[in-house]
Specification:
about 300 residues; alpha/beta; Rossmann fold; two-stranded antiparallel sheet; 7 strands; about 40% helix; about 15% strand; ATP binding
Length: about 300
């Protein structure tokens, strides 16, 4: 049994990738040289469940729609089945997604523009640092073909997954496929997952909040001129990270959104354990360094 989750912004080409992957896997298993088990490949999506895009306009309708998708996945999972979940999960840049959504035409089952923006803002990007988001295979949208062999190896091969942190002592834009096979990971059977220190979550939240406050203060001091350039954030006597701002004023809501996304992504790695071997550094310096990189990569132009 294997569960493949295709994660991405709405209207970013996830369904195309899901169909490509289904065809590839079926052709591979029908190849005369293949002598493994014949597995059924099934796609679970809003389309297969006849869920309209309009349900995402209203939270009261969205909740049961997501529940229906989850229930369908649970029913489809079996030891003789490969389940591909084409769900509402990050892939291409938002602007391209908006263009693709428009090309569907007003008469089609397309997203309301406001709903599309809302879904993009709410998306939580998968992280390869999290063992349950791994292996994480990234597919550039410009690639016509899938990295089929890599996906095949992730689905059909692997080793037994060790206990998680809760039962053991002791990471153009692109398409992202999370391949989560039962009892599989990249670790040997006897490998222990590095566990974050008990104060890691507090450090993550505290440093991100302090950096957002420092950026806001810096902009206020410059009277919102938005000239861009590199600034120093004096968080403490010894911690003074540098960040390069875009040539515009950054709103508080945008800063808070980026902070929220950053914390959510790394919170998984803290609570579930990291896929990285060795010690993972959750010191204030490293958290600040990671947040600087995240901000600079996600500023809107």
């Amino acid at each position: 049994m294997a569960l493949i989750t295709i994660s991405g912004y709405p209207a970013s080409g996830k369904t195309r990738r899901a169909n490509q992957l289904k065809t590839f896997l079926e052709n591979r298993m029908n190849d005369p040289s293949y002598d493994g088990p014949k597995l059924k490949v099934t796609i679970i999506s809003d389309d297969t469940l006849n869920i309209k895009r309009s349900v995402y306009d209203d939270g009261r309708q969205e909740k049961p729609a997501r529940a229906a998708l989850f229930t369908a996945v649970q029913r489809a999972i079996g030891k003789d089945t490969i389940v591909i979940v084409d769900g509402m999960n990050y892939i291409k840049g938002p602007e391209q997604c908006r263009e693709w959504s428009k090309t569907r035409g007003e008469g089609s089952d397309s997203y309301n523009p406001a709903t599309l923006d809302n879904l993009i803002t709410r998306f939580e990007e998968p992280s390869s640092m999290v063992r349950w988001d791994s292996p994480l295979i990234t597919i550039p949208w410009t690639d016509e073909q899938l990295p089929g062999e890599d996906i095949w190896k992730a689905v059909m091969e692997g080793v037994v997954k060790p206990p998680n942190a809760g039962t053991s002592a002791v990471r153009l834009t692109s398409h992202r496929c999370i391949l989560n096979k039962s009892d599989q990971t990249r670790f040997p059977r006897d490998t222990q997952i590095p566990v974050a220190p008990s104060d890691a979550l507090h450090t993550l939240e505290q440093i991100a909040t302090a950096m957002i406050s420092a950026i806001t203060s810096e902009q206020a001091a410059s009277q919102g001129l938005g000239t861009g350039g590199e600034i120093i954030l004096p968080l403490s006597a010894t911690l003074k990270p540098k960040v390069r701002l875009p040539a515009r004023n950054i709103t508080l809501s945008e800063l808070q959104r980026l902070k929220r996304q950053f914390v959510t992504i790394h919170k998984k790695a803290i609570t579930l354990g990291s896929t990285e071997k060795g010690t993972v550094d959750w010191s204030e310096e490293k958290v600040a360094e990671k947040f600087v990189v995240y901000l600079e990569e996600n500023w809107k132009p």
